[in-house]
Design goal:
It contains 11 helices and 12 strands. By secondary structure, it is α/β, with parallel strands linked by helices. Strands 7-8-9-6-5-4-3-2-1-10-11-12 form a 12-stranded mixed beta sheet. α1 packs parallel to α2 and α2 runs parallel beside α3. It is globular and about 60 Å long. The structure holds S-adenosylmethionine and iron/sulfur cluster (2 copies). S-adenosylmethionine binds next to β3, β5 and α11.
């Protein structure tokens, strides 16, 4: 076992795995329907990592220091029999946690099986509670009742406390912040408000579209009163708060206004087996090629260790300090979040 550290001394600790780059929704901030239309070229089946290949790479990543794995995408529950992969990953020595981020549309019927397979926790993305706003955010008619049933089923299956991620976009769903908080107050779920990020090259991000965590926090504080909570672990991406009246916890993911690159221990594995060291990367390192060409575990650990030890990424911190947000997009476009995993 090695503990890979990058050039800024950040350890490799987390791996996000995109198990598919496809999705049944078309959230404008992630997979806008004008770009991800019927003719879009998704990763073909023969280039996708099989469950055996993902599990093998996870064992190798564990040898390089990874302790927590998150399955994401695209929509991970579109991948048939995901429970089998969960069981394979949960079995790996040194992997302490296998989590899932999902849009929740297919969760209700799967929550029990996922929990039985060894899933630790679930995060469900939900950007509003009103049908018209949900349609505007998700690009589709949004099955709210199914998603709420999925959240309840996940909590009942022991996958809680379920985190509910709300991306806030100015002028689209920022008027829904209070009602979202109100709905989940007093329940076991933890709502986390996420600043709209300039991921990928297709979502038309503008700095003015970002509602900062501070703005949202002030709204909630005025209404109910908030008190800060200590981070539950080092490198946690969300800052934690609780309602002063004891109605539960909420969180903020302020990657734009207060970047957390200094603590970033996350690597990403795309559906076709490339390693990315930043959410805003423009290129990755192919692991599928060496894997299929017969590389040994030791060779793969070395390759991953080499990539991580050369890592200098701190995109969000640079965006904040160098007004990168106002720069035109560079020649090499950033890869899409659905491809490398959100
Ligand atoms: N389909 C699953 C889902 O929606 O939960 C998993 C993949 S999705 C890419 C992972 C997370 O990234 C979701 O919580 C989503 O809201 C968030 N996300 C996607 N694009 C974003 C953006 N431009 N800014 C902030 N968060 C974003
Ligand atoms: Fe699909 Fe999730 Fe992206 Fe929405 S955020 S388009 S649900 S992958
Ligand atoms: Fe990590 Fe890159 Fe995000 Fe910074 S911008 S927190 S390095 S993924």
């Amino acid at each position: 076992m090695i503990q890979a550290r990058d050039r800024l001394a950040r350890p490799l600790g987390d791996l996000r795995i995109s198990v598919t780059d496809r999705c049944n929704l078309r959230c404008g901030y992630c997979m806008p329907s004008e770009v991800f239309g019927p003719g879009f070229a998704y990763t073909p089946a023969d280039r996708m990592l099989s469950f055996d290949e993902i599990a093998r790479l996870c064992r190798v990543f564990a040898q390089a220091g990874v302790r927590r794995v998150r399955l994401t995408g695209g929509e991970p529950l579109l991948r048939p029999h995901l429970e089998l992969l969960v069981a394979m990953l949960a079995d790996i020595e040194d992997i302490d946690e296998v989590a899932l981020t999902t849009n929740g549309t297919m969760l209700a019927a799967r929550a029990q099986a996922l929990a039985a397979a060894g899933l630790s926790r679930v995060t469900v993305s939900l950007d509003a509670l009103r049908a018209d706003v949900l349609a505007a955010m998700s690009g589709r008619e949004f099955p709210l009742a199914r998603v709420l049933a999925g959240i309840t089923a996940a909590a009942d299956a022991g996958l809680g406390p379920v985190k509910v991620n709300m991306v806030v976009r100015r002028g689209v769903n920022d008027h829904c912040v209070l009602e979202m908080a109100e709905f989940f107050r007093g329940r076991s779920e933890i709502v986390r408000f996420i600043e709209f990020m300039d991921v990928g090259a297709t979502n038309g991000w503008q700095p003015a579209d970002v509602v900062t965590a501070a703005e949202i926090r002030e709204q909630l504080d005025r209404r109910w009163g908030l008190e800060p909570l200590a981070p539950s672990r080092a490198g946690e991406v969300a800052t934690r708060w609780r309602y002063a009246d004891g109605a539960g916890e909420i969180g903020f993911i302020h990657s734009v206004s207060e970047p957390f690159c200094g603590q970033c221990s996350r690597a990403r594995l795309s559906a076709d087996g490339a390693l990315y060291t930043c959410l805003f990367a423009t290129s990755g390192t192919d692991l599928r090629g060496p894997l299929r060409a017969g590389a040994t575990d030791a060779e793969l650990v070395q390759l991953i260790g080499r990539v991580w030890s050369n890592r200098t990424d701190r995109y969000s911190a640079e965006r904040a300090t160098e007004a990168r947000s106002t720069m035109p997009s560079t020649a090499a476009p950033k890869v899409e979040m659905s491809y490398i995993g959100g």
